[in-house]
């Protein structure tokens, strides 16, 4: 059995929403642990602004007694994974960071701010906006009208109540000073058609991490929907190499 694995989800998501296609496959070789951050899933919503240190410690606590583990971070979860590696360096064996950032750029910030404003309004308008920034344009274009309507309905019904606090954390997060000191083996995966987190921002994250490996997915900001098989393959190949 290779070292255990922790999963860190993105803002406005849950472990299930962001990773469900991968979990059965990843679980074949290792124990997989995860926690929904405040306001997602069944975790109570926070009563104060979220902080990376707290989320990182919550994630590590979910390891359920495992001495060492790798972490897969997605979007906001990449920042949580990086902070966990900094706070618990003796326990984190590897990082896989998908669609992440050290600090968001101005274009991404504007998209996140619009997302935050729409949270207080009509859920259908919010869902339509999220669909345009979450799905890559090639994938979105291939959807039938029935698929698109079903996806819109799903988004509208499943917005986690803690999304405002999670989006706020993304807007505030800045890991540029600490990322260059990472020593853990790291794979950074860019999503080529991402319309939420600029692909160049994820590439900039990779460039800041000493020795980081780089890979790309033919996907927007929803790899679990758009490219789950290839996402799993890239993760598994990297993790297998770390266990040899």
From TrEMBL:
The keyword Hydrolase applies. The keyword Cell division does not apply. Residues 3-228 form the AB hydrolase-1 domain. GO terms for cellular component: membrane. Keywords: Hydrolase. One of its GO terms (molecular function) is hydrolase activity. Transmembrane segments: none annotated. PANTHER family: AB HYDROLASE SUPERFAMILY PROTEIN YCLE (PTHR43798:SF31), MONOACYLGLYCEROL LIPASE (PTHR43798). This is Pimeloyl-ACP methyl ester carboxylesterase.
């Amino acid at each position: 059995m290779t070292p255990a694995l922790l999963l860190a989800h993105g803002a406005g998501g849950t472990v299930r929403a962001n990773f469900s296609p991968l979990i059965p496959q990843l679980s074949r070789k290792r124990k997989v642990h995860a926690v929904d951050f405040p306001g997602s899933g069944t975790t109570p919503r926070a009563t104060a602004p979220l902080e990376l240190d707290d989320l990182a410690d919550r994630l590590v606590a979910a390891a359920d007694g495992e001495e060492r583990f790798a972490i897969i971070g997605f979007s906001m979860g990449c920042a949580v994974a990086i902070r966990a590696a900094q706070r618990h360096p003796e326990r984190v064996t590897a990082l896989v960071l998908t669609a992440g950032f050290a600090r968001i750029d101005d274009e991404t910030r504007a998209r996140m701010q619009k997302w935050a404003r729409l949270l207080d309004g009509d859920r259908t308008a919010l869902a339509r906006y999220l669909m345009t920034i979450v799905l890559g344009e090639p994938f979105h274009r291939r959807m039938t009208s029935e698929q698109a309507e079903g996806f819109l309905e799903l988004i509208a019904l499943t917005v986690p109540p803690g999304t405002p606090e999670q989006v706020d954390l993304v807007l505030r997060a800045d890991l540029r000073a600490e990322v260059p000191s990472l020593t853990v083996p790291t794979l950074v995966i860019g999503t080529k058609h991402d319309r939420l987190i600029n692909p160049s921002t994820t590439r900039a994250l990779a460039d800041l991490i000493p020795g980081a490996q780089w890979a790309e997915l033919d996907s927007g900001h929803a790899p679990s929907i758009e490219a789950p098989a290839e996402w799993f393959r890239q993760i598994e190949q990297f993790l297998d190499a770390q266990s040899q």
